[in-house]
Structure formats: structure tokens, C-alpha cells
Specification:
Distance between the termini: 93 Å
Oligomer: single chain
Radius of gyration: 35 Å
Largest sheet: 5 strands, antiparallel
Order of helices and strands: HHEEEEEEEEEEEEEE
Structural class: mainly beta
Number of helices: 2
Strand content: 15-25%
Strand order of the largest sheet: 1-3-10-8-5
Shape: globular
Length: 279
């Protein structure tokens, strides 16, 4: 009764009464007290929780360290097949699709077919040994202005697209009229367009060449081997007119020695593949 009388006499008495009642309720479990969740003690990181419908837009929250953006190397060419496409003649490349060549390095293409590689149109460099594999530096590709029905040159060529800022850039591709870079070196066998085949060298590329790859590392529509003629074709990266610090898509185009015709014109079939250069 004394406590009630005090409450009637002042506002502070009401405050005291409230505190006493609250304390008593906590002691008997009449009130629940909200606890503050503790941080995990096992070193685990904060992670986003998937939304109920698992949509990608609602799963985008995440905590991670961003060091730098890595541009993805080119894998394959990702373009429509040219006229008279025969993927299996371009058996392998070094670097393989997904690999990256660099300053001071080489790009190598390995050709195989039942006919010798077409080195160009007209008066091309002759093989140094007609009965076996030959080696040639700075070949003569004949009339380099001649083009096939795709508007591709007949000589083996690399086409360069700068993908530093846009990995989908195809401006330098053969299909878009890009500049063709002929190879610097050859091992194996070759001939001019529509000429007769030399002697078969099978997988023997000759002294100083790389071993011909036993397995394909490019898209060859099942990896079909046609024993008979093989060639190693080599480009020096430093001879491709590149800018230091840039990333490039390198498209390789070459023709086989088949007597494939487009109308009255002998064209041969085409192998195509792409790799990446980080210069």
C-alpha cells in the first residue's frame, strides 16, 4: 500500500513500479527476451541464400575478392563453315584451341589428307626432296591475289582479330575480308593448286619437324584420319603485326589438294580452326 501511495504522489513512482513488475515477469517466464544472433565461430563466410524459385537474378548476391578480369581463350572458331569445308584436314594446332600463344612464340598447324597440301596458286616453292618430306623457310606461294569461292587465299593463312575489348570481335576473320598472313616455315609435303601429288610421306614430317600428333585436338567431325600426306605449317607470332598487351583471335585457314570444283574452277577443300594470342 505504501508503494501504491508513492505512485499516486509522483511520476517517478510509476517508473519504479514498472521496473519491479518487469523483473518479476522475467523471473517466472511470463515474458520472452529476444536474443541477438552471434557471429559464427568457425571462420565461415557470409553466403547468399537462393531465392525459392532459384532464378539466377536472385542468386547474384555473393561476397568475393575481385583480383582482375581474365579474358577467356578462344575455343574453336564459332563461325559458319565455309564452302567445301573438310574439318579433318586440319588435324591439330599448337597451341591447341583454348591455349594461348605469346610474344616470341610460334603457331603450328598440322595438316593430313589423302592429297598433299595446297601451298598456293601457280608457281609455288617446289619440294626440296620429291621422294620424301621437305623443309622450307619463307616459301613462295605463287600468285597470292588468287582467291577461292569463299574469297579466301589458296595458300595457308592466319587471320587476326583483336579481341582485347570485345571477345566477339570477328573483323579480322577470313569471312570478313581480314588480312591474310602466310606461314614462315613448312615441313612435310605440298603442291600447287590442281598439281599432281608428290610421293606420300604418311606421318613422317622430316628431320627437325615435330612429331605428327597421334590424336586430333581440333573439331574434325569424328577425327577421321586419311593416311598419305602430312604437313607442319608454322607462323612466327612476332611477324603478325600485333600490339603488345593485346589479346587476339587467330583463325587458321588452309586448303587440301583434292580436285574439288566450284563450277569450272578447282578449289580444294578447306580446314579451319582458331586459337588465341596474348601479345
Amino acid at each position: 500500500m505504501a508503494l501504491i501511495s508513492m505512485a499516486k504522489g509522483s511520476g517517478s513512482a510509476f517508473l519504479i513500479l514498472f521496473i519491479v513488475i518487469l523483473f518479476a515477469g522475467m523471473m517466472v517466464g511470463g515474458f520472452s527476451v529476444m536474443s541477438i544472433p552471434q557471429a559464427p565461430q568457425n571462420g565461415s563466410q557470409i553466403q547468399a541464400v537462393d531465392a525459392p524459385n532459384n532464378t539466377s537474378s536472385q542468386r547474384s548476391l555473393q561476397l568475393k575478392t575481385i583480383n582482375f578480369i581474365t579474358l577467356t581463350p578462344v575455343i574453336g572458331c564459332g563461325v559458319s563453315d565455309p564452302i567445301n569445308s573438310e574439318p579433318s584436314i586440319l588435324w591439330a594446332t599448337d597451341p591447341a584451341p583454348g591455349g594461348v600463344a605469346s610474344q616470341g612464340g610460334l603457331i603450328k598447324a598440322f595438316y593430313q589428307d589423302e592429297h598433299a597440301l595446297t601451298l598456293g596458286f601457280g608457281n609455288v616453292s617446289k619440294m626440296t626432296v620429291l621422294s620424301a618430306s621437305s623443309h622450307l623457310v619463307n616459301p613462295n606461294f605463287g600468285d597470292m591475289t588468287k582467291i577461292d569461292p569463299n574469297k579466301f587465299p589458296y595458300y595457308p593463312a592466319i587471320f587476326i582479330s583483336d579481341i582485347t575489348d570485345d571477345q566477339n570481335n570477328r573483323n579480322g576473320d577470313a569471312q570478313n575480308g581480314g588480312k591474310a598472313y602466310p606461314p614462315d616455315e613448312l615441313y612435310g609435303t605440298w603442291k600447287a593448286l590442281a598439281a599432281s601429288d608428290p610421293s606420300r610421306n604418311n606421318d613422317n614430317l622430316g628431320s627437325g619437324a615435330d612429331l605428327f600428333p597421334s590424336k586430333t585436338n581440333v573439331s574434325t567431325s569424328g577425327g577421321h584420319r586419311e593416311p598419305g600426306f602430312t604437313t607442319e605449317i608454322i607462323w612466327k607470332v612476332d611477324n603478325l603485326g600485333l600490339t603488345p598487351g593485346h589479346l587476339y583471335r587467330a583463325q587458321i585457314i588452309l586448303h587440301d589438294g583434292d580436285q574439288t570444283h566450284s563450277g569450272s574452277v578447282v578449289t580444294g577443300d578447306i580446314g579451319e580452326n582458331c586459337t588465341t594470342i596474348r601479345y
